[in-house]
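note to self: dont lose this again. the chain is below, predicted strucutre after it. 191 aa total, dont forget to put it in the shared folder this time
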Amino acid sequence: MTDARPLFIPVILGTTRQGRMSEHVARLVFDEVVKREGVESELIDIRELNIPTGDAGSGIKDAKFSETCMRADAFVLVVPEYNHGYPGMLKHVLDTNLSEYIHKAVGICGVSAGPFGGARVIQNLLPVMRELGLVTIFWDGNFSSVQSAFDASGKLLEAAYVRRLDKFFKELIWMARVLRHGREQVAAGGE
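---
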């Protein structure tokens, strides 16, 4: 029996920098995920969250963001690679929650100005995702030479990215369904 409830898969834009090309990627990813039958989404820009930087952890949660994370069946992170790593503000934001992520799928779209499509940022985020209780899918979204993939208005110039995202979303949606079934039907710890 298939659960008819739509999956909720928010897309999180993981940088606060001005002039960020990853914003074009996040909009493309959001536009593509909402085309999927049985999927709802929301584009979350961490720049717009009300999370103080003078403290850390669950004590500084943004209530709306935490509620969105609790409701989510899966997540897509769109993350630029900065000097082989991920933006510190993304880590700060993600660390404000924990129980909201447990046993939920996550797919990562790496963004870079160079030829590797954010492969290093994805690699560096994998242990963080595991520690947060998220389950990573095995397809990544790699956006290389992002400055050439979109025009100044954000229009996609490289149609191949849409085909690549198709594989990414098929895996993410499958994993989200399986994990939702598990969260709802199987006691934690397999009991």
